[in-house]
Specification:
Layout: H1 17-22, H2 37-49, H3 52-58, E1 60-63, H4 71-75, E2 79-82, H5 93-108, E3 117-120, H6 138-144, H7 147-162, E4 168-169, H8 193-208, E5 220-224, E6 245-246, H9 250-266, E7 271-274, E8 278-279, E9 282-283, H10 288-298, E10 304-306, H11 319-329, E11 334-335, H12 341-355, H13 360-377, H14 388-391, H15 397-410, E12 412-416, E13 429-432, H16 439-443, H17 463-470, E14 476-477, E15 486-492, H18 510-521, E16 526-531, E17 547-550, H19 559-565
Parallel strand pairs: 1-2, 1-11, 2-3, 3-4, 5-7, 6-8, 7-10, 13-14, 13-15, 15-16, 16-17
Antiparallel strand pairs: 8-9, 12-17
Helix pairs in contact: 2-13, 6-15, 7-8, 7-15, 8-9, 11-12, 15-19, 17-19
Bound molecules: beta-D-glucopyranose (BGC) (2 copies).
């Protein structure tokens, strides 16, 4: 735990004192291993040969849809990303691998043959790929409090990523989150920095391995810093809180927003993404004090600092000023992803270097970091990029079993009056509610598409299918007119991502309230299974059901709900964010951080 007894003096962001006084005791002093000597020599030799155009190519990241054949070679592009849902053809593993292999091959034809990195947001499994295993979102994984499980999930995800020739994932999100009105709440592990830092480090180890260069992929701790700590109502563009302003004092900011990155760096993370938010009015993308002085110098982060999606364009001033401000703040790779923006970046950054507004030393620092990460990842020496044996294993039975286990461990039992749960497999069940038969809703945002998979199909098991498969299929149905012993209502939020998920008052939908009321009126005992990306307002309805199970966004393996409901697995999840009565309301929460019931050891099943 961070020490609160440090003198209440305000520390400047550049102050080194913070680490001595406030760094969480459990976190080893941040220090990234310097590049292996062989890589350092190789990078220096390359750098000495590179032209300015070749260097700037390493400093920009384009989106696949706006890169034409020949662009990689012509503009020396150092990396390309897939935005949410951006995929070739039908987004199958084979189509992905063919696409990335072609791009990798093109990079090899350049004068210096510097390999390309391909990036994607694999944030709960390799979710932009149809057929990938979809793991629970971080909101659920946080409730497991199980670093070994999270590392295993990340390891399996890394294998699926590598099976498509992708080398870089923009995960994990390591910042803590405090306000469920935020549309990205489900991307966070916990409200406490020490928990999110620790679990984030486990994910980084799983994705990358103990060090870069094994069979892992490049991880990215994001979004530095303060993404989940913005004040409601401070967003300038779309949304209510996403990309808003953090209004904490320096001391708290370092302890809560920055501290988790120390754990990420200690775990060897190779890249860190800068956040869209501002801190007391200063946008992070222009925040040299935090990005360069704190992250790179004080915390000794030696990897790549990448911008968020065209985030520099939200800075004040002309595009020229935006490029100068963000590069000089310490951003090494600019993801100017929208349209053909990456070309503007190359042109503008070149002009700024020629005019002396960006120094050659700054360019060299950025390029050295990018090349060092590439060298350490081992991509310079990998002739055939995609391991097709891994392509064939995407969505394997083994990975799906792991996802099911992770989902089981993530569920939090909120209420269980008269020990209604676990149920007997012989009970007749009527299963209703908006989430009973919806893979899209149980998977949430960042699945197949940026905003989620509503209307799209991908492999998985729905909650109703899982209940049917576990019990007697003839006794589990969705028809309220048929006789039943127990009513299960699977309530859910529709999927969402980023600011589109910002909400003033996240609550149960009318449709699900009706389903709960109808079930309640039958006189049957009622179980509510809640699929949500955050704690939502349930207090007025709590007593209408004897049991409430928070299942979060479990992913493709809906059968995990049956495992817990029938007692094959005992619920062990504990809340990693307090559950407020209403988001934004003051007063004690409905359920505290750490809350979670289990089953009595000798329960008779209903
Ligand atoms: C998000 C990032 C994401 C990036 C690339 C941004 O809009 O904020 O979390 O990694 O897009 O898709
Ligand atoms: C997201 C991308 C997405 C894009 C769509 C961005 O903010 O991060 O991943 O594809 O918006 O406009």
């Amino acid at each position: 735990m961070a020490s609160r007894s440090a003198p209440a003096r305000l520390l400047s962001f550049g102050s080194f004192v913070w680490f001595a006084a406030c760094a969480p005791a459990a976190t080893p002093p941040p220090r990234e291993a310097p590049p292996a000597p062989a890589c350092a020599a190789r990078v220096d030799a390359l750098l000495a040969k590179m032209t300015l155009d070749e260097k700037l190519g390493q400093m920009v990241q384009a989106e696949r849809k706006v890169v034409e054949k020949g662009d990689v070679a012509k503009y020396f592009l150092g990396s390309i990303l897939s935005g949410g849902g951006s995929a070739p053809g039908g987004a199958t593993p084979g189509e992905w691998a063919d696409m990335t292999d072609a791009l990798h091959a093109e990079a090899r034809t350049t004068r210096l043959g510097i390999p390309l990195l391909y990036a994607s947001d694999a944030v709960h499994g390799h979710n932009n790929v149809v057929g990938a295993t979809i793991f629970p979102h971080q909101i659920g994984l946080g409730c497991t409090r199980d670093p070994a499980l999270i590392e295993a999930v990340a390891r399996a995800t890394a294998q699926e990523i590598a099976g498509t020739g992708v080398d870089w994932t923009f995960a994990p999100l390591v910042g803590p989150a405090r306000d469920p009105r935020w549309g990205r709440f489900y991307e966070t592990y916990a409200e406490r920095p020490e928990v999110s830092g620790l679990l984030g480090a486990a994910a980084i180890r799983g994705l990358q391995g103990d060090r870069l260069g094994g069979t892992g992929v490049l991880a990215c701790a994001k979004h530095f810093a303060g993404d989940g700590l913005t004040t409601f109502g401070t967003t300038k563009g779309e949304g209510l809180i996403d990309r808003g302003d953090v209004q904490m004092g320096d001391d708290d900011f370092m302890r809560v927003a920055v501290a988790p990155y120390a754990s990420s760096i200690a775990a060897g993370v190779g890249s860190i993404m800068v956040s869209f938010n501002s801190v007391r009015g200063t946008p992070m993308h222009a925040n040299e004090a935090l990005v360069t002085d704190v992250l790179k110098r004080r915390m000794r982060f030696e990897g790549v600092v990448i911008s968020d999606w065209s985030a520099l364009r939200l800075l004040p001033g002309s595009y020229y000023e935006q490029v100068v401000a963000s590069v000089n703040a310490g951003i090494d790779v600019t993801m100017d992803a929208e349209k053909l923006y990456w070309r503007d970046f190359l042109r503008t950054a070149k002009e700024a270097v020629q005019k002396g507004d960006i120094s050659m030393a700054r360019v060299d620092d950025a390029v050295r970091r990018v090349l060092a990460v590439k060298c350490e990842l081992g991509v310079f020496d990998r002739a055939q990029r995609t391991d097709r044996a891994l392509t064939a294993k995407i969505g394997s039975a083994e990975h799906r079993a792991l996802a099911r286990r992770a989902a089981q461990a993530s569920f939090v039992l909120l209420r269980n009056e008269a020990n209604l749960l676990p149920l007997s497999k012989a009970a007749r069940l009527v299963v209703t509610g908006s989430g009973a038969s919806s893979l899209a809703r149980q998977a949430g945002g960042w699945t197949v598409d940026w905003q989620g998979a509503e209307g799209k199909s991908f492999p998985g098991t729905t909650i109703l299918e899982g209940l049917r498969a576990a019990g007697d299929p003839a006794r589990v149905h969705a028809d309220p007119a048929k006789p039943a012993d127990i009513a299960i209502v699977v309530a859910s939020e529709p999927p969402y991502a980023e600011w589109e998920g910002d909400a003033k008052d996240p609550a149960l939908s009318n449709e699900d309230v009706d389903a709960i009321d109808r079930a309640n009126k039958t006189g049957l005992p009622v179980v509510v299974v809640l699929l949500s990306g955050r704690p939502i307002a349930v207090a007025p309805h709590l007593r209408k059901a004897s049991a409430w199970l928070a299942a979060w966004l479990p992913g493709s393996e809906g059968a995990a709900v049956a495992d817990v409901v029938f007692g094959d697995v005992t619920p062990t999840g504990k809340l990693a964010h307090a559950w407020p009565v209403r988001a934004g309301a003051s007063g004690p929460p409905l359920f505290d951080f750490g809350f979670g019931l289990s089953y009595p050891t000798s329960s008779t099943k209903r």
